[in-house]
What does this fold into?
Amino acid sequence: MTARLVSSYCEGEWVAPGAAGSEIFSPLDGALIGSCGDGDINFEEIAHFARTHGGNALRAMTFHQRAHRLKALATYLNERREQLYELSFLTGATWRDAMIDIDGGISTLFVYSSKGRREMPDSKIYRDGGIEQLSQSGNFLGQHICTPRLGVGVHINAFNFPAWGMLEKMAPTLLAGVPAIVKPATQTSFLTQACFAMMIESKIFPPGSIQLIAGGIGDLFDHLGAQDIVSFTGSAQTAGKLKGHEAFTVEGARFMAEQDSLNATVLGTDCTVESEEFTMAVREVVREMTTKAGQKCTAIRRIIVPSNLTKEFSKAVTGELTSISVGDPRNKETRMGALVSHRQKTDVLAKAQMLAEEAELVFGDREQFSSHEGAYMSPLLFHCSDPDSATNIHSVEAFGPVATIMPYRDTAHAIELVNRGGGSLVASIFTNDNKLAREFVEGAAAWHGRLYFANRHTGKEGTGHGSPLPHMVHGGPGRAGGGEELGGIRGVMHYMQRTAIQGNPDLLGAITDSWVRGSQEIHQGPHPFRMHFGELEIGKTFRSKSRQITLEDIEHFAEFTGDNFYAHMDEEAASANPFFPGRVAHGYLLLSFAAGLFVDPDPGPVLANYGLDNLRFLKPVSPGDSIYVRLSAKEKTNRNEEYGEVLWDVELFNQDDEPVASYNLLTMNAH
Amino acid sequence: MTARLVSSYCEGEWVAPGAAGSEIFSPLDGALIGSCGDGDINFEEIAHFARTHGGNALRAMTFHQRAHRLKALATYLNERREQLYELSFLTGATWRDAMIDIDGGISTLFVYSSKGRREMPDSKIYRDGGIEQLSQSGNFLGQHICTPRLGVGVHINAFNFPAWGMLEKMAPTLLAGVPAIVKPATQTSFLTQACFAMMIESKIFPPGSIQLIAGGIGDLFDHLGAQDIVSFTGSAQTAGKLKGHEAFTVEGARFMAEQDSLNATVLGTDCTVESEEFTMAVREVVREMTTKAGQKCTAIRRIIVPSNLTKEFSKAVTGELTSISVGDPRNKETRMGALVSHRQKTDVLAKAQMLAEEAELVFGDREQFSSHEGAYMSPLLFHCSDPDSATNIHSVEAFGPVATIMPYRDTAHAIELVNRGGGSLVASIFTNDNKLAREFVEGAAAWHGRLYFANRHTGKEGTGHGSPLPHMVHGGPGRAGGGEELGGIRGVMHYMQRTAIQGNPDLLGAITDSWVRGSQEIHQGPHPFRMHFGELEIGKTFRSKSRQITLEDIEHFAEFTGDNFYAHMDEEAASANPFFPGRVAHGYLLLSFAAGLFVDPDPGPVLANYGLDNLRFLKPVSPGDSIYVRLSAKEKTNRNEEYGEVLWDVELFNQDDEPVASYNLLTMNAH
It folds into this structure.
């Protein structure tokens, strides 16, 4: 194999590594496979290029436009992913490990594309929460919005997920409208670079949207300011050092860290050796120890088991570990590949030695593979009989296939032990007792970014202790870095600035592409249901004629629908109800009559009413009262070639112009 | 006047200042009014006392229980607020200034109490967002929750709002379930302490919930860890220093800063001398310069005016400033009181000198009051003709009655200038042009925590450029500190930890006091509408008999309601619609029949159906199809002595058990 030059990509050009770049050796056989770093890069200029070229181009798009490009990118990479598998073996990863990294990364792009289109507006400004009424008459309102930060997202990634690590940070960043500079870890940078090169080749995102720094980041931090964001994945030690940089303490750049942590799994007190949860927990522990050779920031490091089951649990895990074949990851039979490098293996063994001071080795051989050219090692399972006085097992992370079993007395003790990690990315609990689960949440949630509950009901559907999903927050307090990534649209917000907007209804509407109650109504032109999606103006309003509700209507409706609730049918009983003056019209009668008042019957652009939100009945309607409807086009969201969705603001008023009901109506309107 | 000893309140005891405490002098006449600090405090112990005594007691309550106590506290303080006014004069504040501080603080408690009850559950666990579907069959789901951090909230406050500053931080902290340690600024600590003493005397919050450190915080930060939160208000310089402390960079405590910033106001290009917005802007500038003698972190420092109007605007502001009487704040006629101290005045004049290097003084006399015993000074208005090359006017904050007018060429230039502050708490724009407003938002929102738009429509209802409201976020990027306070429930979240929970439906329901779709249904016992609020179990379910929908039903409903939409009435036209197989039942017909199927008619605990949420029609119902209903009690929220609210999860199914509609029904149920 020829050594690869891992190039950077800066200001639209590939930059080869320099003479002083680092050499990268294969973890499989020690052969030189590439060199990386020391390229001729002006860090101030690439940050500037990102903010101007990339930022301006991205901000010119709406959230939906960016989401569509994410989908195109995911599709493009998906068609080429097998090329990346070949390189992935050179990181020590097995086929299954490669899928987690590569397919997992691509799937994150797909999920963000989908969430961006479903949960964000087709607009440049995101509404955060609802309107706040700040004055009595409603002429002065508040609305929080989020807009893209005018800076660059700098992504500092760890070696263990060269594809996923890049893509999971990039998806929310680009969706936010912020350009990214990616800095992969040197040891596996060749895979990141190969994936990145596909993205450039695809030309899907505009120039300056993404850049790559293979090697060190030089003086980049000295050029970061208040609008920039650094998202770091790596060790607690490095994060602590970076956080103190003036870019963050003085200039006001945002810093988010996702650090390795001492993640734990707990077997609930309700479990027995025979229970399904016991077997599931054993399987999960073995999977977490051996996937990526245990080099996962979410991997289980501490196994907390009821003291009466420790021996059996340890035996069961040992039994499973015996069948794990360690070796060349290119071999499909291999269950565990190599560590990423010899350096990493040396570090893991040193950390294992610290665990050995407090715990005995119950499975594995630290000497196995000691003379092998590849960075292979045996899984190591420790048992610590006194986890209360031990400290290393709760604080020293051997970032490899290493975990420690420890006993606990009761649930309170288990909670205490699981929290001893000082903050983790994830803890899992195997239990079929919901009360116990709740006890865990109340006692431990504040120390963990994610709590994963598994039992006979979740069964095979559970996505796994160690798998961050794009839907759920990834990150945790304290030792885990205090940061958050992913979590759906929450992850996008890290790259945006929230701003409180105060003003009058029309102005807020103009800013948020929405009709806000109290704004001007547009009355000219045909009935709004006769207007195609594109023609329909936000604020287009229909005010219906009025209709009287008679006692006969109420009685007829009751008989027809079968809804003979006493508030509609019995004057005396209705009067005794604290909310009603006497018999009143059914709420659904009002809704139905309202539709009769505003619907335009003939075929036209409105294809269907697909739902209704926020319906509130505000004032009872008595026999003899009249109602009329105001219907205003509030928001529009294009969906496909055929139609878009329209959200209507609807109010029903009585003969005294008092609102009696209020809701949002949802229709699909043809183009 | 006798000098007051400003005591601390630690571990349930008042601690008097020590011999080396700071002396506090009156800003009105230089007299000694008190001493503060150097008390005998063990900072490690008070943090521990807060976390254990205060934290445990607060976490034992639900959000609603804590919200009720906030209301009781607000009421208690409100009845005693006049006592605080007397002390407020000794901070240099006028009557109006005192109201902003004291009444403003109390009102923040009221708003948080109300929002806590309306927007948070009556539970110990807050649901953040909805259920995430993580598996196909729905047996494995995700839900984000927030729980109180297990630490202490340390509040470091500025001198300018001794009451509001304490209360606006305390309200969200206590609502979150987190104890607070308050550290007021020494110069005005006597007022904070007086207000704090009332809170202790009220006994409304349990011991350990609130403690007070008058004077320095000693080694407190050395004892903070991953679960603690520091919320700081003050100068950028101090914040920068604090942020670098290992409590934050290594231990993982949260740090939030709200710093003074170079807030600006802009007069839109649409304004003329005659326009209402011109007059409003002049009034606002004068109010911002003189309220609290300009000692507000949100005050207008930079006045950005179209170049053709600068002269007129300057003249108008000058005219108004002439009528501002500066003097003893106890005098009701006084429009502007004293600065908080001579030291502060010296600092402001020094900063004004730096502005004078780039701008000319157009109003005010820096020598006025120079030999006065009180810390009085004249308002100072500067004019800078070249704001592009100037730097001090955009970066040096004279924290007193000082502001600078500057001209701009066009809106792009105004945006550039307003952003030159490097991040601010608030910018205001006076404009009656919504397009211009949108341009401002797109160009400037990312640099500002709040954008305040005022015009003839907002008129007198506008709450003011400089007033942070509990509903809206207070804080801003960059120079403003990068933190956030208030903003309704957003402000509570800073004191909580978000955790992603994964598990099966029943388990998630047990954790969140909610029935989650896919959970077990409780069928035993009477019809759920026959059960009182307290008896009704979450998960109690009613499955109705089924009812066929005939073509006659559809035609009858159409005629009765007037809803003759073609999809219900015209087979051919309906078939041409992409969503319908032919004529289908009205959505509201389904809703109405569903009510007929589940309603229990006789008087009983269900008092009223007050609304409906998230209605989606999932599948068309054709003539001849049947429907039946599943109705399950999903969530309960107690409201008062008489009744509580029940949220029902409702699904309509057809004869093939396919869901055809889904919604949440809202009822009020008697106790």
Remarks:
- The mean pLDDT of chain B is 95.
